[in-house]
Sequence to fold (203 residues):
Amino acid sequence: MKIICIGRNYINHARELGNPVPEEPVFFMKPDSALIRNNKPFFYPDFSNEIHHEVEIVIRISRLGKHIETKFADRYYEEIGIGIDFTARDLQKKQATEGKPWEIAKAFDGSAPLGKFVKRSSLPDYHAISFRLEKNGKEVQKGNTKDMIFGFDELIAYISGFLTLKIGDLIFTGTPAGVGPVKIGDQLTAYLEERRLLDFYVR
Ligand code: ZN
Fold:
């Protein structure tokens, strides 16, 4: 199982980090050791002083495929969930400045808390999903997948042009504006529509 994450997929988030709006998707990967399931706590790592939350809608691949055309991409996922792409922003800035890869800032243990999934057929319109993140009960991020620069189908087509997608692979589809730091003791709660699918503490 692999975890593919999309960078800069919401214009307002690309702008808040001072990045240009991309003309094609930007993706990177996390290993399976990044996953946290069942609302287990995230342990703040000692190599960073600036861990940021990025709440993201996640799709789970349900069919094996490569070189998938956009018009058929819809057949490759049935379940949609929500997760956090934890980012060591201090390390990410340093790596970017030095032209080095992002893994130490993005792929570390526990950097991908993952909530429960819902069947997309249970959603009124799975191309316009509202979602949000609360930190200690206060809303910090809010988005809607209709504002993605590249939609689910375009992402699947693009990624599968480079690597084979397998059943169970996860795609974190990018974060809206409002990313910010977490600290030990914070509670993070993520909602897909009004469904609370993820709820955990930073320890
Ligand atoms: Zn992200």
Q: What stands out?
A: Residues 5, 54, 56, 85, 174-175 surround zinc ion (CB under 6 Å). The radius of gyration is 16 Å.
